[in-house]
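User: My collaborator sent over this chain with a note saying "see what the structure looks like." That's all I know about it. Can you take a look?
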Amino acid sequence: MIKVFVQKCCQKSYEILKKLSKNIWQSAARDYATRRTAFKSKLSNHQVHVSTLARMEIETRAAILLSVEVSRLFGKIELNEASEQEKDLMRILTPLAKLQTAKQAVAVCSEGLECFGGQGYIEETPMPRLFRDAQVLPIWEGIYFTVNSV
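Assistant: Without extra context I'll predict from the sequence alone. Here is the result:
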């Protein structure tokens, strides 16, 4: 029962992170930055905007690496190849990874919408759906309160 729960939680987080890692929003944000003018200059010339895009990329990749590590440990445990230290690490990392990736997904999607200004809220783009999907993660199981109560 717990294994199925962990697998589903990791899978949902991974699916959203996978969507983000496909550079859907990143490539669109970069393209938009080369076309949109603000303060008499393209957004791509504004260091703050470029830094925001870079930080979002780093956070996304870090979340993917964390999810992959938890999945690796999960696989070793399923195959009865894990040491006691790895089993303990898995027990600690599972709720923490779920919490961290869920919160990161919401923050990154929110900032991704902000990169597009009003265009980010138009339903013809994939951005609002990604944001709604990301919002489900922390709401779904109430993970913040679960981790804090342990």
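A starting point for your reply to your collaborator: The chain has a mean pLDDT of 77.
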